[in-house]
Amino acid sequence: MQFAQRLEKIPPYLFAEINQKRDELIAQGVDIINLGVGDPDKPTFAHILQAMHQSLDDNATHNYPPYQGMDEFRQTVGKWMEYRFGVMGLDPNTEIISSIGSKESIHNTFLAFVEPGDYSLIPDPGYPVYRTSTIFAGGQPYTMPLEAENNFLPDINAIPEEVAQKAKLLWINYPNNPTGAVANLDFFAELVSFCRHYQILLCHDHAYSEIAYDGYKPPSVLQVPGAKDIAIEFYSLSKSYNMAGWRVGFVVGNSTGIKGLSQVKTNVDSGVFKAIQKAAIAAFFTSEEQLQSLVSIYQHRRDVIVQGLQSLGWPIQAPQGSLYVWVRVPKAYTSQEFTNLLLEQCGIIVPPGNGYGIRGEGFFRIALTIPEARMEEAIQRMHDAGIRFETDDSSNKFKVISNKS
Ligand SMILES: Cc1ncc(COP(=O)(O)O)c(C=O)c1O
Fold first, then answer.
1. For the segment 53-83, what is each residue's pLDDT rounded down to a tens digit?
2. Of 37, 110, 34, 96, which is closest to residue 378 (Cα–Cα)?
3. Which residues have CB under 8 Å from 145's CB, separation 6+?
4. Ligand 1, from 99, 177, 276, 356: best to mutate by most atoms within 8 Å of Cβ?
């Protein structure tokens, strides 16, 4: 038997490899600190669990759910968009659809809009699914570099005219995985007019919409006047409400975008279990205090990591959102070499930045999803292994003082 050629073009999923390495080391008795995966470690909020328990006992939730989501689910999403962002008047029938987590809807968007030869404009570094789903659809990924000097925002003026003409989708994601960067409405407005000019569907992956620090509230692209003409936005309950395993999210915005998604969905997968939709409805009523109590846990962890790395000489600023700290590797190392060093000498798992794209080379990513005490231990292990950055004043570059021979 042979795999289809398209599988040969797809690299192994980053975390499949990392998880395999983790399991091997654990089997050898190594005490691994896994700073790898953005999988929330706290339990789902109690009021959501309660709604789920009740809904499970209701036989009416047991049959096939509607593909687009129950009326009550879509109406509540519409109200949540009003309450959270002031985005008024989304039509629950044509401008809102439920999804089995956002990974499903992201992939299906490529199937709905990208044809062989078309470009998708995707961030580099970025969530790996944008690239692989482009390839699955037969399209060509065109990467938009996210550089630290530009606050990890893409420069759309650098996109060649012929690429823009042949592009079907433009993907952004703020708060950003993996860089932790955030974006403001002026930047979104610039993208809306670019996408309107070239008739490109603007896709904003807002998986971390509620995970932001220091009082910052990430905006919706749909707050830009007229954005609904050209943009859709992907939401997930995975991170905001500790519901990663439940597989529920939604997409809002441009009705053609939603229609395309719906057409793929009705053919290749199914709706979200109704009891989970009921639980998600309860999630939309999570109080600001509850959300803030979750966010402040991540914020403390972020501070432990940032201050710990600073104490080891890293010139690093605290990210304003997402579950990640994006960290430069010392100059003497590639991303892979340095993450291997962390694993072998400290028992710390982190993904190398090049797993998120070529421009991720020179970085690694730390996820804020383990308890503070383990993070402190990770910093201590790095300290004990002699790993640190030092700024060399004469060249303004970093040199590593570690036990690399
Ligand atoms: C940027 C981004 N988008 C989408 C997802 C998918 O999340 P889910 O499918 O759980 O909604 C993730 C998960 O890590 C992510 O980081």
1. 999 999 999 999 999 999 999 999 999 999 9
2. 34
3. 124, 154, 155, 158, 359
4. 177
